[in-house]
Amino acid sequence: MSAAAEDARIVPVVIVVPPRVLLLDIAGPIEVLRKANLEQAAVRFTVAYVGPSPTAHSSIGLGLSGIAPLPEALPADALVLVPGMADVPIDGIGADGEDYAAAEVAIVQWLTKTIRPGMRLASICSGALLAGRAGLLDGQECTTHHGTVAELIRAAPLARVVENRIFVDSGERLTSAGITAGVDLMLHIVARETSHATALAVARHLVVYLRRGGSDPQLSPWLEGRNHIHPAIHRAQDAIVADPAHHWSVAALAAVAAASPRNLSRLFNDQTGMSVTHYVNQIRIALAHELVTASRLDMERVAEQAGFASARQFRRAWNRVHATAPSRLRREQTPR
């Protein structure tokens, strides 16, 4: 192991494997973590698989083995991931529910006993039902697959269940909709634990560029314009995302992309549907939004760190995107 890897901050991820587990609920999000470990050295995600049984039958008929017992305790900084379950696996095994109800009860009891305040729990698809039955979503906004929303409302009557969301981040509780939304949720977690640049690199590797944020009805600015596979444009976009405050002229980005300025402008419009300048401003506003809502910096410092020449220029660009002024948005999102 390299010295950099030894110095990395460790994020322990514990996957609870239920019976009839939806295999994509595990494979997709954990592939995000595997790639994130390769993209940067500052944070390392470790993965452990636990469950009520050392083996599990998956939704696609593939058997899983080597599953560790449900532990007595977890690290305080652990991220616990609960994937969903199939009603009927592809081969029909377990469709009658034999022994599976008892395994689900064991998971719910373990979650109730083990997950303490301060610990993060993420669910994918119908995994929210187990978290809900354990009382871990009480008082929280949450979501699940559209086909199990009604069931979650019954299982967790004290939760605020919302529909039509890809994922919901309520701080210690993160829930996502059906199956591939688990990839979106894990990209969100990677961005928060590492950087947007790392999450974008992983999304690019997995070819899942066109994604929405958890509660934003619009496309996330960090991922909008990424639903293409043109390497020169991705190089330019990667450079912008890595340092939004840099003075990114078309000529400077053309050098990064190994294209002429004229060709870069044409390709950028063709591949992203927007101009280079529009994309740069979009990323700067996305960064500014994070600084406004997650810091106490004054608006002049927000403008400077986001790459705007002045607070006035920042506010002008902000008002083209947001209906609420940045100072008012900060007041509205500050707990009373």
Provide structural commentary.
Helix content is 45%, strand content 13%. The chain is globular and about 65 Å long. The strands form three sheets. Strands 5-2-1-6-7-11-10 form a seven-stranded mixed beta sheet, sandwiched between helices. α2 packs across α7 (196-206). It has 336 residues and is an alpha/beta fold. It has two domains: 3-196, Class I glutamine amidotransferase (GATase) domain (Rossmann fold, 3-Layer(aba) Sandwich), CATH 3.40.50.880; 228-336, Arc Repressor Mutant, subunit A, CATH 1.10.10.
CATH architecture of the largest domain: 3-Layer(aba) Sandwich
Number of helices: 14
Distance between the termini: 47 Å
Task: Work out the radius of gyration.
Answer: 22 Å
Please summarize the sheet with the most strands.
7 strands, mixed
CATH class category label of the largest domain: Alpha Beta
Number of domains: 2
Query: What is the oligomeric state here?
Result: single chain
**Global morphology:** globular
String of helices and strands: HEHEEEEEHEHEHEEEHHHHHHHHH
Mean pLDDT: 89
Write a brief structural summary.
With 336 residues, this protein is an alpha/beta fold. Helix content is 45%, strand content 13%.
What descriptive keywords fit this protein?
336 residues, Rossmann fold, Arc Repressor Mutant, subunit A, 2 domains, seven-stranded mixed β-sheet, two-stranded antiparallel ribbon, 13% strand
Summarize the topology.
Layout: H1 3-6, E1 9-16, H2 23-39, E2 43-51, E3 56-57, E4 63-64, E5 68-69, E6 79-82, H3 100-114, E7 120-124, H4 127-133, E8 141-142, H5 149-155, E9 160-161, E10 167-169, E11 173-176, H6 181-193, H7 196-206, H8 231-242, H9 250-257, H10 261-272, H11 276-294, H12 299-306, H13 311-319, H14 326-333
Parallel strand pairs: 1-2, 1-6, 2-5, 6-7, 7-11, 8-9
Antiparallel strand pairs: 3-4, 10-11
Helix pairs in contact: 2-6, 2-7, 6-7, 8-9, 9-10, 11-12, 11-14, 12-13
